[in-house]
From TrEMBL:
It comes from Knoellia subterranea KCTC 19937. Residues 1-20 are annotated as: Disordered. Pathway: Carbohydrate degradation; pentose phosphate pathway; D-ribulose 5-phosphate from D-glucose 6-phosphate (oxidative stage): step 2/3. This is 6-phosphogluconolactonase. It catalyses: 6-phospho-D-glucono-1,5-lactone + H2O = 6-phospho-D-gluconate + H(+).
Length: 259
């Protein structure tokens, strides 16, 4: 499954695990590899704990991976009723809107899995909340009420501009502290209104998996792995407590140092 492992985990001085980079030849191979890794991680985790907390991402690869999972025979070995699903961010749009991350994940294959509907935690849209602020508060309370401790696996797409979830480099929402989720307005990428987990919440993850494909994201990957500042790259601000994985395709790896 691993075609090219460019770094090994080492303790990171800033807290969190140092990045490991795994490169796959193309986007389809990457999607299939992420799916296989996820299914294996869930099977392993379920052998030791009751419910596994997984946070999902939007973006094309974030949805493609569910098509890969749905096509994987080993998916049957996962007890999907014991997986709790969250989203790292959501576009502030009504339930069912085709531009919502959860709708795109569902359409790609998530909805085909025998998941317990009460364990799918969708971010309220304008049909279920008065404002993005109210939605962020409600979503944060839902996370706190579940009292699940850290996320087991936090899956994050990365934009060409280095954003993760809906935290954009240099955007004031990046600076939110003492909160689990934040309302984001004036997002540089449409739609303008969103709800995102904060850096603090994203960091409370045992494993963080950045999933990235495409040459247009090569610089964002290089900056993320190289610990660039928050005005340049949001991904660099988040590491997993035990593991930080960059799962990328060859095009996204082109700006990384060759050593
Ligand atoms: O808007 C968003 O974009 C990012 C990345 O999307 P991509 O299509 O460039 O892969 C995604 O991770 C985030 O969840 C989403 O809301």
């Amino acid at each position: 499954m691993t075609d090219d492992t460019r770094s090994q985990p080492t303790p990171d001085g800033d807290g969190g695990a140092a990045p490991e980079v795994v490169v796959h030849p193309g986007k389809q191979e990457l999607s299939d590899a992420i799916a296989a890794r996820l299914v294996t991680a869930l099977i392993d985790a379920q052998a030791e704990q009751d419910v596994v907390q997984v946070s999902l991402t939007g973006g094309s690869l974030g949805s493609d991976l569910w098509a890969s999972v749905a096509a994987l025979p080993a998916r049957a070995a996962v007890d999907w009723a014991r997986v709790e699903f969250w989203w790292g961010d959501e576009r502030y749009l009504p339930a069912g809107d085709a531009d919502r991350n959860d709708v795109q994940n569902d359409a790609a294959g998530l909805a085909s899995l025998p998941v317990d509907p009460t364990r799918i935690h969708r971010v309220p849209g304008p049909d279920r909340s008065e404002s993005a602020e109210a939605s962020a508060t409600a979503y944060g309370e839902e996370i706190r009420a579940t009292d699940a401790g850290a996320f087991g696996i936090m899956i994050l797409g990365v934009g060409p501009d280095g954003h993760i979830a809906s935290l954009f480099p240099g955007h004031p929402a990046q600076q939110t502290t003492d909160a689990i989720a934040v309302a984001v307005h004036d997002s540089p990428k449409p739609p303008p209104d969103r709800v995102s987990l904060t850096f603090e919440a994203l960091r409370r993850s045992r494993e963080v998996w950045f999933i990235v494909a495409g040459a247009d994201k090569a610089e964002a990957v290089a900056n993320g792995v190289a610990d660039a500042g928050p005005d340049v790259n949001s991904a660099a601000q988040v590491k997993g407590e035990e593991r930080t994985l960059w799962l990328i395709d060859a095009d996204a790896a082109t700006a990384l140092p060759t050593d």
